[in-house]
Design brief:
Length: 447
């Protein structure tokens, strides 16, 4: 990809460096429906990839592309109306029952598990509050204890679990151990890794989408396999896409297109160097070069239009669709967290749920996807205030009829996803009270 020419370095063996903010909090456990099917995304491939025809951005996104399990929304307008300031009593039990009734009508696709806390009998207020506090304390403890790097026994759901390296050489094992030490020491705060003691050739990583991009606050999972020829050849890497294509470099079949992996052309430090390149470099490359603020221009066929009005408008539309897919990926991960990452998924979205929902509202008001969200200015994530003001966030222009149609489609889809996320985050114990109260107020009958 052209963006790789930036030549980043990481550590003594990388061509660049990056950093990310730390975060923390916790998450509630949830019940799950019985029965789940295996991940239906396809296998990843290695080797050079030739794009005969660049993939066009999905600017004509329509409602029928929605997954079957997304719920209908009754709102008629994109922008939220000013809510009346009349007082009312917030009834959380009543709200949960409303969600339950709506949730029971969902037609979940195979492999997507649902949370169903409403099947439980609602406890008395005092009892419910006490158990909630105890549960949250336990979840917080687990979440804060979730290490960035950790060794597990084995993976049962790893994409490359059926691939064998045979009897590895002593040099191979020493190199893998060296990789582990680098990861344990130098991982950015926004990347988490698990390796297997019984299968040293397997690795799983979770990458948090960077701020200022359409991937912000998302969790993206990758499986890696060190072949018997490693490090002469780069590792194989598979992206858990859930069947979604949210980046020109991340295919819905799980393929990761990156020069460092040999799946795209490159030169210099962009290519794999057995003596210097590392798995740490691969992970930070994915975060910095692929999950960037304008992924539309990752496609070589579109890079030349980066400084043109048409190119910029296409990039805006691509980002909107990318954020929709990122929200769907959140739901996918919440309902099917990868092995050993359940505590991270639960805690991350419990911590960031409020900001994600605020971002949805922010974008529905016409603000640019990736712009500063008002909730972030409170600095609840890392104790600091955002460096820029949301009041200066640019509004998307929709002077032409086709842009108006696209905006309407984007709003309709995002409203539906907002409802799904609100339900999931509420179950996980995120701070959703503000949005629940707004929803209940909006549904109050006229005086």
């Amino acid at each position: 990809m052209d963006t790789e020419s930036r030549g980043l370095q990481q550590g003594s063996s990388s061509c660049w460096s990056t950093s990310a903010a730390a975060w923390g909090s916790s998450q509630q456990k949830r019940q799950r429906c019985e029965g789940s099917s295996s991940d239906q995304v396809g296998s990843s491939t290695s080797g050079s990839v030739q794009m005969s025809e660049p993939e066009l951005p999905d600017t004509d996104y329509v409602e029928n592309e929605e997954e079957d399990y997304y719920m209908d929304d009754d709102d008629d307008d994109c922008d939220d109306d000013n809510d009346d300031e009349s007082e009312y009593e917030f009834d959380e039990a009543d709200f949960n029952q409303q969600l339950a009734d709506k949730f029971d009508d969902l037609d979940l696709p195979p492999g997507v598990e649902a949370t169903v806390p409403w099947l439980q009998k609602i406890a008395a207020p005092d009892e419910q509050d006490t158990s909630s506090e105890l549960t949250e304390d336990e979840i917080t403890k687990k979440y804060k204890a979730f290490a960035q790097f950790y060794t597990v026994e084995n993976f049962s759901d790893h994409h490359y679990a059926d691939k064998s390296v045979g009897k590895p050489s002593r040099e191979w094992a020493k190199r893998i151990q060296h990789e582990w030490k680098l990861l344990e020491k130098d991982l950015p705060a926004s990347i988490f890794v698990r390796v297997a003691e019984d299968r040293m050739d397997l690795l799983r990583a979770a990458i948090i989408g960077p701020k200022g991009t359409p991937y912000h606050d998302g969790l993206f999972f990758f499986d890696a396999h060190f072949t018997a020829s490693y490090p002469s050849q780069p590792p194989l890497v598979y992206y858990h896409s859930g069947g979604l294509r949210l980046n020109p470099n991340l295919y819905n079949c799980g393929k990761v297109c990156l020069s460092l992996l040999g799946t795209w052309s490159g030169s210099g430090c962009e290519k794999w160097n057995p003596a210097q390149s590392t798995m740490l470099q691969v992970l930070v490359s994915i975060q910095a070069l692929i999950l960037n603020e304008k992924p539309y221009f990752n496609e070589p066929g579109y890079a030349g239009s980066a400084n043109t009005p048409t190119g910029q408008q296409q990039s805006i539309e691509y980002n909107k669709n990318t954020f929709l897919h990122s929200c769907r990926t959140m739901l996918y991960s919440l309902r099917r967290p990868p092995q050993y990452f359940g505590d991270l998924v639960a805690g991350h979205f419990r911590e960031r749920g409020r900001t994600i929902l605020a971002a949805c509202k922010h974008y529905l008001e016409g603000n640019m996807v990736g712009s500063v969200v008002p909730e972030e200015e409170e600095g609840e994530h890392d104790g600091t205030r955002a460096s820029s003001s949301s009041s200066s966030a640019p509004k998307q222009e929709a002077s032409r009829a086709d842009l108006i149609v696209r905006r309407s489609q984007f709003c309709d889809n995002l409203k539906t996803l907002f409802e799904d996320l609100l339900m999931e985050f509420n179950v996980k114990g995120a701070d959703t009270r503000k949005f629940i109260e707004e929803k209940l107020k909006k549904n109050l009958p006229a005086a």
